[in-house]
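Lab meeting, action items carried over

1. Structure of the two-component assembly. Owner: GW. Status: complete.
Input record:
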Amino acid sequence: MKRTRILKAIVVATALPLLYLAETSPDAARGLTLLREARAVVGAPLTPMSVAGVARRSTARVAVASTAATSQQQAATAQQQQATAQQQTATAQQQAATAQQQAAAARPAGAPPAGAVVNALPAGCKPETRNGVEVQNCGGVYYRAGFQGNNLVYVVQ
Amino acid sequence: MQFTITERLAATLTRACSIAAVAALSLAAQAQPTGIDPEAQRLLKASTDFLASQQRFSADTRNTLEIVLKSGQKIEFNHAARVSAQRPNKLRAERSGDLVQQLFVYDGKTLTLFNPKDKAFAQVAAPDTLEGMIEFARTQLDIVAPAGDLLDKNAYGILMDGVTDGFVVGKAVIEGVRCDHLAFRAPHVDWQIWVQEGAQPLPRRLVITTRDLPNAPQFAVTMTKWNLKPSFDAQTFRFTPPAGATKVDFLPR
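Predicted assembly:
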């Protein structure tokens, strides 16, 4: 369970930036991925930054709130031994995301699904206010910033 | 013959290791201590009690965090933080490092996290004591105040919870300060602390080894520039959003 969580965090952190980097500069991918992975992990609950944290972590905790359906799927593929319950969650979330994706007809092709969480914005985003909320418009895909632990992340709207 | 950098490094490491091995031999040769040495307990308690009795203090911290990649490879990250605290309920930590630049401010009511580069901040109501806030931040928000264990008035209880073994390793020098080096062991975690000798037994270094994670990653913090009479002003523990900063949410877990 603990192992699964840290692996998952790393897989999620690695997979998402790769999706974007693949389009721009393959050579830059490794270094940048590591940096973003670090950004995602530093301050995450599994980091051994306090004795109390380690002691309490050993008691069972609910799995991390989901991130992207796509990354969940990748995480699931990468970890064949993942718990069945988590796979079911992933499937449910994927279905939900797919439904949302279908609902948003204007969404550009290949855009990440609503609810996906990324550690960095793609290039060329512009801030704007949408429904009273400040968001980043990245080529028609809207991202909203939020803190996940110590990390600033962006949630696809 | 031309050596590659790697070969030279390996040779240097081998030499360094043999020297270190000789030094460590005397320790390793001793019977493995079991149980908790009362002297180790006494030295630790002197330190935690001393810090708990300080109403205002600040220190510079250097933090090293190991992350284990899926492959098993360890990667190390570093950041520094300037920590200012005022009991019973004020804290400010300014972090800078590999990637993270972050301001953490707690005014006794509200906890603020601010990323200056992203111009984004989040705020949430927090418990009204330093201890309650640190616990809340860790368990509810997944925010970790570096070495938050030490700031707690009950640091001794937190650190010693579940500890089965503890001993005094010996004398050591951390950043030019003579210290007593203590080592403790609990079921999931090993930790070591270096406590300044003399009338001000300040913690100078803390190393946490997580034995329950693959490859046992470590977190280490070294504390320098302790100031037990810092001058704080009205802004020290107050967050005023800079122009153009965006307020964001803590995402639900």
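2. GW to write a short summary for the group page. Key points so far: Chain B has a mean pLDDT of 88. Chain B touches chain A through 55 residues (CB under 8 Å).
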